[in-house]
Amino acid sequence: MAVPWLCLLAGGFFGRGTRVVTVTVKRHVRALRRRPVQVLHPQEEKKEEVKQPKPSSTKWRVYTPRNSAGGEEQASARSQSLRYDKAVPGDRRLAKVVTIAKSRKFREQHGKVLLEGRRLICDALEAGAMLQTLFFSTVDRLNELPNEKLKGVNLIKVKFEDIQLWSDLVTAQGIIGIFSRPDHTKMSYPVTQQKNSLPLSLICDNIRDPGNLGTILRSAAGAGCNKVLLTKGCVDAWEPKVLRAGMGAHFRIPVITSLEWEVIPNYLSASTRVCVADNCNLHMAQPAKLASTRASDYGWVSCHLERMGKRQLSYDSSSDEEEESDDEETERSSKVSFPELSVHTYCENWAQPPVAIVIGGETHGLSVESLQLAESSGGTRLLIPVVPGVDSLNSAMAASILLFEGRRQLQQKEAVHLQILI
């Protein structure tokens, strides 16, 4: 209620003739300082947005492939879009990558292999390898792969920093695939490779170094081998370092692993001639020693054969006989007879189709079983002469020299045969 008490005060203070201003004062002055409240009618009320809790799992995202011009494809092609998942920190699926890359036992038990890089993954897909999970850092990486091969594949987008942690490469390529372990009987190798294939096989015996084995497989594919056989004792052919050194050779020619020597003849024709590579220097070999059967006359195989001879002697000796001294045992082991093989230099005429070459590792050398197989097939020892003072060549280098020399000889014989037919 307004009270005109200021009028009386004004009259007393200012006197007559003074203009008096009447001020109306309302109670509850503090209420005027509050902000006005907007009144909304029921039909104008906005519905309050309710925040949905974030799901524990990641959301699916749709990837639409791009055409060669770089633009989005039309609606008919969008029906073929792929869904991919975005990984979150702590995703258990990411831990499998390191496990598969580091553990041979895990790869063999679960039948998995790990491939990194666009070229290697494309070679595997074209050969018919089954891709299960694909990790990629950017969507552009998917454009580099054949879209029709990615149907049904578990696609997971991860941070590039995570791929760098997994990768053994100096510069990670941002794409890693987990494949089912390829079966050579179900693979479809390139037609060009099959047309240029020769009756030439390679047997790897005790190749322990991943880089050497990968290089050997690459040379075998380049030379036109029809198959590569790996005995037990070789490094795993599906190890990441072997795959990287092989540069796609695993998906160009059949690579059959973990074979016992007893079953190797099953993968060769009955008329195959088996030759073994040896690093005994030819300029040091006397003519009388070229057909020698002493273990010390074999280059790469000498140490292995000496050990085998000692074990055989100790096994044959009876328990009631007195133990021989080390000197006597060494003398007897040097007299043990081993498979007798003729010796040829690598450039001589030795490649009679079909032919197989056995290459041994630099540490353990060739096994006795390889020499026995070569002897039973009428094979020979192949020597690559080197200058005095050089111990031997790298096993991958020696294999490359012998494979391409074998290719040259086989092609030359094939050309002569065609001329005779004409």
Automatic annotation (TrEMBL):
Gene Ontology CC, one term: cytoplasm
Keyword Chaperone: no
One GO molecular-function entry: RNA methyltransferase activity
One example of a Gene Ontology biological process annotation: methylation
Keyword Acyltransferase: no
UniProt biased composition (Acidic residues): 318-330
SUPFAM superfamilies (alphabetical): alpha/beta knot, L30e-like
Ranges of residues in domain RNA 2-O ribose methyltransferase substrate binding: 114-185
Swiss-Prot/TrEMBL keywords: Methyltransferase, rRNA processing, Signal, Transferase
Signal peptide (UniProt feature, chain positions): 1-17
Biased composition, class Basic and acidic residues, residue ranges: 42-52
Region listing for Disordered, in residue ranges: 38-80, 313-336
PANTHER family linked: RRNA METHYLTRANSFERASE 3, RRNA METHYLTRANSFERASE 3, MITOCHONDRIAL
Family the entry assigns: Belongs to the class IV-like SAM-binding methyltransferase superfamily. RNA methyltransferase TrmH family.
Protein name (database record): rRNA methyltransferase 3, mitochondrial isoform X1
Gene designation per UniProt: MRM3
